[in-house]
Amino acid sequence: MGAKALDPLDLYDVRSELSEDEAMVKDTVGRFVDDRVIPLMREAFEQHTFPMELVGEVAALGLFGSSIDGYDCAGLNGVSYGLICQELERGDSGLRSFVSVQSSLVMFPIHAYGSDEQKDRWLPAMARGEAIGCFGLTEPHGGSDPGNMKTHAKKDGDDWIINGAKMWITNAPIADAAVVWAKTDEGVKGFIVEKDMPGYATQEIENKFSLRASVTGAQFFDNVRVPRASVLPGVSSLKGPLSCLTQARYGIAWGVIGAAQACLNEALNYSQDRVLFGKPVAHTQAMQIRLADMARRITTAQLLALRLGRLKDKGELTPSQVSLAKWNNCRAALDIARDARDILGGAGISAEYVPIRHMLNLESVITYEGTETVHQLVIGKELTGVNAFG
């Protein structure tokens, strides 16, 4: 009896470690990505447009706020959310970013820190895709130091007046509501700013060569009056936005595996079909070493993500563990995408093949939700006990 053939994209059979429900989530989202997402993404990337027609389908699958119980949300575990991110990013980082923002950066803080009225109003609508959210934290003068926030809110009777600006905000131009973080005399607070509030404006950022199938914008607040009912009552510190980022980074650590798998799959197929000097490129030692290195990186990333997910589901996850996985997995995925692009030679710069699109997207993914350097310094602090930021 021969040895069992290994899955080139899952050499350690991580799938066998999944529960029946987790495997079903992976397969369901995977079919959706194959049937609906991948056929749209090349044109969406080229045209610099987000495929809005997918929003209802994503909602129907229960992918928005999937980890939340109640409020028309699916109530899935952390590993299932990770698998959702992995499969979506196998299609395109832009779609995974859209779902990540809606789920981890908007629905999560409303659920964790919002009032009952805020939860009842926004969570079911966002779960159904009837309302789109965005997360206003990053500012024009620098993203890695949220404590240096300039956007501020001052009390005026029962209302708050917000002034300032945010930059590089996914979904901002198409969002119905923004969870905006601002400094106040009482600490950093979160505000639900609605798109039609006077003084609030967004502007789409054009000419991006990364995440082109995603809508990114700037936000401007000119004496925006926000009622007390729109303030998140449950937090008054940087813990609020940072806890959201931990959720988002967790999803990214899984998501980039999907992008890397798509690139390895393309490189495998191309190197087996491409014949040079009388034999397929895949039959050469140099190519096999490169492909093996991609598989090694993907396998390491898969095992890190799965362990991270199990820790999350036991309630034992720490932000530093998320930083390690985000750093490792983003770096691995970007290196794989770059090498896959190179393996395809001239074809590698064509959008007919996926590596160039994933490579360009991953240049953003390795930067947002904490740059590689930020996460390295988080681990450095964990090892030494010394904060070397700044």
Explain how this protein is built.
By secondary structure, this protein is α+β, with helices and mostly antiparallel strands. The chain has three domains: 14-127, Orthogonal Bundle (Butyryl-Coa Dehydrogenase, subunit A, domain 1), CATH 1.10.540.10; 133-230, Butyryl-CoA Dehydrogenase, subunit A, domain 2 (Beta Barrel), CATH 2.40.110; 239-384, Butyryl-CoA Dehydrogenase, subunit A, domain 3 (Up-down Bundle). It contains ten helices and nine strands. A four-stranded antiparallel β-sheet has the order 2-3-7-6, covered by helices on one side. It has a three-stranded mixed β-sheet with strand order 1-4-5, covered by helices on one side. A hairpin with a 2-residue loop joins strand 8 and strand 9 (279-280). Helix 6 runs parallel beside helix 8 and helix 8 packs antiparallel against helix 9. The longest helix has 35 residues, at 239-273. It is globular and about 80 Å long. The termini are far apart. The model has no long low-confidence stretch (mean pLDDT 95).
